[in-house]
Design brief:
eight-stranded mixed beta sheet, 2 domains, TIM Barrel, Urease, subunit C, domain 1, nine-stranded parallel beta sheet, alpha/beta, globular, 386 residues
């Protein structure tokens, strides 16, 4: 493991550089104190730990911008049932809350370990069960993984405890059942969240059985940092988001397994809205961002009947820099850039997925997996060697 204040250089690597994800060959990347300090050719290697990058492909670590870590305890339950049967009050998901706290925490820890080994350095997890739910997730997360935790309550408004108490342990708040909240209560709730130093992020337009008015109420009164899903969004709703600086996280596999539909990613991107990817509920979907990217790319080309509807670089951005932008972390995360954390996936150029590939980014999106990873670096330190 790299010691603090040690200078490390990846020498002569092929790397995907910058927010625009440009593939650069024979490049050196210098890391000091966990941050990227220089990217150029022939960096001085005096007093430096050298990592031979000649047979490596360096990619920015993934950002899983929406998942539910606290439903890791029971997986593959309820497949084939509707969204309402799965996650609405009284649904299948509530069975997961019946497990012991120890079992819940151990399952979250197992998910987190797998997440990191799969190349993800940042997650945003929605946490059920209020303050206790957030604490359960927070206590189970490896400190090497950057986590944004969004708290939710089980009950309808006015909720079972104070939003202020929740935001003492959570980064943000996800209000539920907003159709039952009045305009006056919305404004009061928004001010309380702001005063507590938190922000709003929430599911929106996922189910066709919920009124579209919920979307407008959320945008108008709560000023969310980002919205998740937007499967049922039409052009009117998409146009409404333009210039409001609200990001969107889409979960293609999650929406497909529950049968709710396909989010309008192409229309969102066309309007300049920042779109990121998430893997959604652990009990239904793996946390594998390779699978999420591949499924997204293939599905969008298929449903649009247009092979060029989206390019591989855009999909990779959705799994990296776009996630950082949506979460407000792009100053430090999301790309291999000077000044950012050295969170890097080092792929073996000799693995089956890359050995014959003519397009590195397409290989990452459509072909690669965890077996192709030589090492995962978090803040410049190799995670596998811990």
């Amino acid at each position: 493991m790299v010691n603090k204040n040690t200078k490390t250089i990846f020498k002569n690597a092929t790397a995907i550089i910058g927010d625009e994800m440009e593939v650069v060959k024979n490049i050196d990347i210098q890391i000091i104190d966990g941050k990227i300090t220089q990217i150029s050719k022939d960096i001085d290697i005096t007093d430096t730990k050298i990592i031979d990058g000649e047979r490596l492909i360096l990619c920015p670590s993934f950002i899983n911008a929406h998942l539910h870590l606290d439903d890791s305890a029971i997986t593959d339950i309820g497949v084939g049932q509707s969204l309402e049967e799965l996650v609405f009050p009284g649904g299948v998901r509530e069975k997961i809350t019946s497990v012991s706290k120890d079992d819940l925490k151990s399952s979250i820890k197992a998910s987190v370990h797998k997440i990191i080994l799969g190349g993800t350095a940042v997650v945003c997890s929605f946490c059920e069960s209020g303050v206790e739910g957030v604490k359960n997730v927070k206590e189970s997360i490896d400190l090497d993984l950057k986590s944004i935790l969004i708290g939710r309550f089980k009950s309808k408004f006015p909720y079972e405890s104070k939003v202020e108490d929740l935001l003492k342990v959570a980064d943000g708040f996800a209000p539920g059942f907003i159709k039952d909240i009045s305009e006056e209560d919305f404004k009061n709730l928004s001010q309380r969240i702001l005063n507590s130093g938190g922000f709003v992020a929430m599911h929106s337009l996922e189910s066709k059985n919920l009124p579209v008015e919920n979307f407008y109420k959320a945008v108008d009164y709560l000023n969310p940092k980002f919205l998740v899903h937007l499967v049922q969004a039409g052009q009117k709703e998409i146009d409404y988001l333009v210039n409001k600086n609200i990001g969107v996280v889409c979960c293609q596999r999650g929406n497909s397994i529950t049968g709710v539909g396909v989010p309008p990613i192409l229309s969102l991107l066309e309007k300049g809205i920042v779109v990121a990817l998430g893997t959604d509920n652990v009990f239904l979907n793996s946390t594998n961002m390779f699978r999420e990217m591949e499924f997204t790319s293939r599905l969008l080309r298929g449903v649009s009947k247009n092979a060029s509807a989206i390019d591989s670089k855009t999909v990779l951005k959705m799994a990296t820099i776009n996630g950082a932008k949506v979460l407000g972390l792009d100053d430090n995360y999301g790309s291999i850039s000077v000044g950012k954390k050295a969170n890097i996936i080092a792929f073996s150029m000799e693995s089956d997925s890359f050995f014959r590939s003519a397009d590195v980014i397409s290989a990452i999106v459509h072909r690669a997996g965890t077996d192709d990873i030589r090492e995962v670096y978090l803040k410049g330190k190799p995670y596998n060697s811990k």
